[in-house]
């Protein structure tokens, strides 16, 4: 298949911009706005091409002008359900449909890329043959309001599922399973307002607002899926959660308890081992190493335990190979991964969709990429919004505490919706 040639012109200027400046100038066309707490803010609008499969050689670029140090050619997502088609062992699992495509990477005509570290705004203008036609997004207009409609699982149902997972662990079928419940809300008004509320209430490294003609994603995720740069791939799983304290003393006590908790440390260790194994499928084996274990990160409502694993990629690893090796992320499936995913499909009544899938950007040749795991993430279609919350269940999990942990994790979303 011949690569489609993209003509691209870059310009750069010194600017001082904030996330609020970008929110104040969101386009009416479909767009993807990635606005985490790191160095880069990126806003692509007016889609001209889409990929519905991970193909690293679909486009060739004629680039001119002042190029930035990263090249986010494609912005997009994969749903959790996309992972069920990546392994033949899961091919018999029924796929549940939703308004979101299972996999979609979009190239936009206009890209604004702001380097907050150096105060530089890069802008790109693109064109290619056989472009997509113009369209508008479904962000909505007017003051934003929401009203809760339903839970996929109440406390009793969720705790019963935790007990069922513990039975499977006792039988030796799994060691850990990430269990999700979902909330459904009726909404009206501009989802951009909700996204701004969430950004103020819970600033996170991987925040995003993606608005298409038929659906919208609002994410405030703290979790990295993977980052590729300089021939290395890095992944940073989260496992272990504690609520924030109401006083400095209580908050410090909860931090210390989380760091010392044998259950949470062993849970993170299992996922680190799983990801080390996944990385050996696409990396030089001696190069795969644990960079940090564990570290503690604090957010508006919770503390998390985090690890980092990295490896040197084998030469010319295509996008498809990376997703096939790593997706879905081990921290939000469990281990063994395939057995955990089979149990997830059996126990969870609704598709997770974007929740615990992947969301981010990549260079077209996949030599640069950064994707998050979308937790603390909602998605909307029409007048309905859903979000998922969950956690890893192991043998010594307490069903009541596991349910309460989902309340802590969903607090920012619920506060901003309410």
Walk me through what this model shows.
The chain is an alpha+beta fold and 418 residues long. The chain has a single domain, classed as 4-Layer Sandwich (Anthranilate synthase). It is built from 8 helices and 21 strands. It has helices at 19-23, 155-170, 191-201, 248-260, 262-279, 319-326, 337-347, 399-417; strands at 4-14, 31-34, 40-51, 59-65, 74-78, 103-115, 120-127, 145-151, 176-188, 206-211, 216-221, 224-229, 232-236, 238-243, 289-298, 302-312, 334-335, 358-362, 369-372, 377-381, 384-393. It has a 21-stranded mixed β-sheet that branches. The longest helix has 19 residues, at 399-417. The chain is globular, with a radius of gyration of 21 Å. The termini are far apart.
Tell me the layout of helices and strands.
Blueprint: E1 4-14, H1 19-23, E2 31-34, E3 40-51, E4 59-65, E5 74-78, E6 103-115, E7 120-127, E8 145-151, H2 155-170, E9 176-188, H3 191-201, E10 206-211, E11 216-221, E12 224-229, E13 232-236, E14 238-243, H4 248-260, H5 262-279, E15 289-298, E16 302-312, H6 319-326, E17 334-335, H7 337-347, E18 358-362, E19 369-372, E20 377-381, E21 384-393, H8 399-417
Helix pairs in contact: 2-8, 3-8
């Amino acid at each position: 298949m011949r690569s489609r040639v993209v003509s691209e012109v870059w310009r750069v200027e010194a600017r001082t911009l904030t996330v609020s400046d970008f929110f104040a100038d969101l386009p009416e066309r479909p767009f993807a706005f990635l606005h985490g707490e790191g160095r880069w803010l990126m806003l692509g609008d007016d889609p001209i091409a889409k990929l519905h499969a991970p193909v690293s050689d679909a486009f060739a670029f004629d680039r001119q002008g002042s190029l930035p140090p990263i090249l986010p050619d494609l912005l997009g997502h994969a749903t959790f359900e996309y992972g069920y088609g990546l392994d033949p062992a899961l091919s018999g699992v029924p796929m549940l449909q939703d308004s979101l495509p299972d996999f979609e990477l979009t190239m936009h005509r206009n890209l604004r890329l702001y380097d907050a570290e150096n105060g530089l705004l890069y802008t790109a203008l693109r064109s290619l043959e056989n472009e997509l036609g113009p369209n508008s997004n479904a962000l909505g207009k007017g003051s934003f309001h929401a009203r809760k409609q339903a839970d996929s699982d109440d406390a009793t149902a969720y705790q019963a599922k935790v007990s069922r997972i513990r039975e499977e662990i006792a039988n030796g079928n799994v060691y850990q399973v990430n269990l999700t419940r979902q909330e459904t809300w009726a909404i009206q008004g501009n989802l951009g307002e909700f996204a701004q509320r969430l950004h103020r209430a819970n600033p996170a490294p991987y925040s995003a607002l993606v608005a298409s003609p038929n659906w919208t994603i609002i994410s405030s995720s703290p979790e990295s899926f993977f980052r590729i740069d300089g021939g290395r791939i890095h992944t940073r799983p989260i496992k272990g959660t504690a609520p924030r304290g109401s006083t400095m003393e209580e908050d410090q006590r909860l931090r210390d308890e989380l760091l010392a908790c044998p259950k949470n440390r062993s849970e993170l260790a299992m996922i680190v081992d799983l990801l080390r194994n996944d990385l050996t499928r696409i990396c030089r084996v001696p190069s795969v190493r644990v960079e940090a274990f564990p570290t503690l990160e604090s957010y508006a409502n919770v503390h998390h335990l985090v690890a980092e694993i990295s490896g040197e990629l084998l030469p010319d690893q295509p996008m498809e190979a990376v997703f096939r090796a790593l997706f879905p992320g081990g921290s939000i499936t469990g281990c063994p991964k395939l057995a955990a995913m089979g149990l997830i499909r059996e126990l969870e009544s609704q598709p997770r969709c974007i929740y615990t899938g992947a969301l981010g950007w990549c260079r077209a040749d996949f030599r640069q990429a950064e994707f998050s795991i979308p937790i603390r993430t909602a998605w909307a279609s029409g007048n309905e919004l859903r979000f998922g919350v969950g956690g890893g269940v192991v043998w010594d999990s307490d069903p009541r505490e596991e349910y309460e942990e989902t309340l802590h994790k969903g607090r920012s979303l619920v506060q901003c919706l309410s």
